[in-house]
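Minutes, project check-in
Item: structure for the 211-residue chain
Input as provided by the requester:
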Amino acid sequence: RALRESEERLRLGFEAARMASFEADLRTDAVRMSDSAEWLFGVHPREVPDLPAMRALVHQDDLPLLDRAMGRAMADVRGGYRAEVRLRTPRGDTRWVECVGVVDRDADAAPTVLRGVLIDVSQRHRLEAELHQAQKMDAIGRLAGSVAHDFNNVLTAMRCATDLLVGDDRLDAEQLEEVTEIQRAVERAQGLTSQLLTFSRKRVAQPEVLD
C-alpha cells in the first residue's frame, strides 16, 4: 500500500509538472518510459522500446542538438545534460520538450544508464511567440505613427499649394481640373495617414452609428 501511494504521488507530481521520465540502458539500448508519456505526448511506453525508437520521435532538425548534449554528458564524468528539442507525436502535432538527466557509470567510469525526464515546455514557447508577435506589432505601430506624422506634414504642404493654385485666375479649365484631381488625391492620402495613426493608437477611434 505504501508503494502504491508513493507511486500515485509521483504520478500526480509528473502530471502537474507535465513531465515523463525515462531510463535507457546504454549497453542494450532498451528504454523504459513512465506512463505519463502516453497522455503527455501520445506515445505509449511500449511504442518506445529502445533508443532508436526514442530518437525517431525527435524532430530531424533537432537531432544534432540532442546528440551534442548527450555527447558532452557521456564525456563528462558528472554526466549531466540538458537540451530543448521538438518531438513529433503520433497524432501529428509537435511538442517542445526539455530533456534533463544524468548518465550513470560503472566502476570503470564507463556510461551504463541514461536517466532523465521529458518536460513539456510547449506552452512556454507559445507564450514567447505571442510576446514576440506583440512586440513586433508594437514596433510596427510606433513606426507607422512616426511615418504618418511626417507624411501628413508633406501632404499639408501639398494641400496648401493646391489651394493657392485653385484661387489663381490664370489657370484655364483644364489646368484647374488637374489641380482639383491633385487635391482629391491628397485628401485620400490624408485618410490613409489617419488610419495609420489609428493603427498606432496615437489617435483614438470614435465609432459612430450610421444609417
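Outcome recorded: DSSP finds six helices and five strands in the chain.
No further action items on this chain.
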